[in-house]
Batch of 3 targets.
Target 1
Amino acid sequence: MNAIPTSFRNVSAFSAPRMGGPETCIVVPCYNEEARLDTEAFRAFLATGDVCFVFVNDGSKDGTLERLHSLRAAAPARVTVVDLERNGGKAEAVRQGLLTSVEMGAAQVGYWDADLATPLSAIGDFTQVMARFAEVQVVFGARRMLLGHRIERTFARRAVSRLCAALARQAVRLPIGDTQCGAKLLRNTPLLRNALAQPFTAGWLFDVELFTRLSAQMADRRHAFYEQPLAEWTEVAGSKVSARAILRSGITMLRLIARTRLARPAVAAAPVALLPIVAPVRKAA
């Protein structure tokens, strides 16, 4: 999949300062989320913390964009809206959002599923890990069914998750337990910027591809990745991922693993040319 041209990438103006940037910025990809987007939960979280959000409208056909602009109006200093006029898929929506977060100068950038299967309160747990362990580059949610934890997943979800984790262990060469939880936090470093330089090719398994790109550049991969057991995760109906998409992504991932095993080339260290922010185009009255 090719990157979305800048002419199809509109970003609402934000008042967050570029110098230094926010400490933490979370990307929320949105495709036809009008009915599922819990704007009240986001508003409540925005009122209590200092985390910034980049909402990416991935070519939605419903009223998602209007709901996102209402969130920005409620907290203009901490909400940015990226409007992709063409649907490019979750992987590209997340990548575009992360590029915007990197450009804003956030020290830590991440992404969170719009359905809030992982509650926003878990963001604080992730940032604490980053603060405690300087060597950690990636914190990602692990939906482990531990005693006392509120993890609600169907058998089918668990089966798919185990398959994805098996692929991830082969690709990243680490004992990863869960890659597909939609809650990730990453340090804004040259390694991350290099990993985001090109569009992902693994579709629904882009998380594994991102981990693979990062690990290929790391001398100490084992201490760079941190699985954060979630205290709460609830499966939300309305997933847009089909069985066919899972199969296609799995085949692509196997090809990537084969290439990685045969030759593990380092990701190019050339500076990443970040996409410029484009002001929303206004039609003349």
Note: The radius of gyration is 18 Å.
Target 2
Amino acid sequence: MQTTIRSSLSFRGRGLHTGRKTSMTLHPASAEYGIWFRRTDVLDRDPMIAARWDAVVASELCTKLANADGVTVSTIEHIMAALAGTGISNVLIDIDGPEVPILDGSAAEFVAGILAKGVQGQTAPVRAIEILEPVEVRNGSAYARLKPSAAFEIDFQIEFSEAAIGTQHKTLNMANGAFVRELCDSRTFCRHEDVQVMRARGLALGGTMDNAVVVDGDEVLTPGGLRHADEAVRHKMLDALGDLLLAGAPLLARYEGHKAGHAMTAALLKTLFARPEAFRIVECDSVQSARLPGAGLSRADAPALAA
């Protein structure tokens, strides 16, 4: 069955790139509503922005959505990952600024809040996108692809010259709360040498050691170090999960990413929907529903947030 949150839930914090302090509230929504953002600070244009692949616009280092009136919301990937990982089908997200709060740089606080409020079942079937044929996009040695699979899996590999990151590879079947247990607390990361460059270009204005893992060569500069030895690739998987929910439904597929990022995953969804023979929409039976990322979660599964 489709789901929404039991009651409204609010977050407040700075945007990673704008540095602007923003309030965001998730509201329950009816079955078949989908996921929408509403810019409550926009009064002269349409404030509603659909969380869908065809609303994605070009942006650096994050996923950004826009409506036909040019109203935007950015850095949506972590809240989208939290919704995907907790199995939320329908929600209205009010936000009073252009960027989702970064909080601690992961999706853990979003997940903990959703599970604390509870998930409400709805009398409508879950529809999933079943991949029938491989779909792939490439850019040099980087690629992202979707392949047929009975369950949703993510296989990701990254390669960085910094010894603190290096080459990392991880594969997860995302069923039965794997996202909550394995990925949701993994933070965004960057190289120390890139911080000033990004800020000179108007990016990462809200970035601090409290909301990102910063590395310099073989050293992790962020106090407390890593939450996982492979936190970087886990965060890339988190981002991919959030970006893939922009398909508009859960996937029954295997996602494989090699040095992929937000733009490549967006291009992959665009390519997928240009090939109607490569997928079909299915109503999930109990077996298929049990294979989806948010199946079987409860408040007891909420992540213990790092200090």
Note: The first strand starts at residue 3 and ends at 5.
Target 3
Amino acid sequence: MDSRTPVSRAEIDAMDPRFRVQFINSLSGFKSLNLVGTVDADGRENLAIVSSVIHLGANPPLMAMVTRPRSVERHTVDNLMATGVFTLNHVRPDFVEAAHQTSARYPREQSEFAQVGLTPWYSGTFPAPYVAESALRIGLRWRESKLIELNDTELIIGEIDEVHLDQQAWRDDGSVDLEALD
């Protein structure tokens, strides 16, 4: 006999909205936590937290992220569409609170980097800002977007242009030891 209690769709729909978000978001298991770095055409830097990042393929090297609905201004999406570039920066425990604060609504001219106390860093070979405090930084060029009409979110697909990581975390088999990067 199974002791687990099923949760029906009707029960999910009846949940307090914040409770439902936490419940549904946790069902897929552990996710990476990333900060997306962008810059607009006027050089204003933007930083946004995202946990819906996936690997799409190794040849070409593709990653994707799901963005929130565009019911309000989405500076990150606007910037990466305008410039064609963005960065993904892994969040470490020592700045997780600052990372979460990037989800607050800031005016377009206000840099989330400055607001939350994180440092923009440029590699010299890629035009979008990285998070200096991150141990794994990925520069991507926008390749395609797909509107998900069911909930008005977007799947943003990027091709990896460069990766910055501590060489000690790079394993002999090619994989990255994420635990070593904290």
Note: Strands lie at 34-39, 45-50, 53-58, 61-67, 85-90, 120-121, 130-131, 136-148, 153-165.
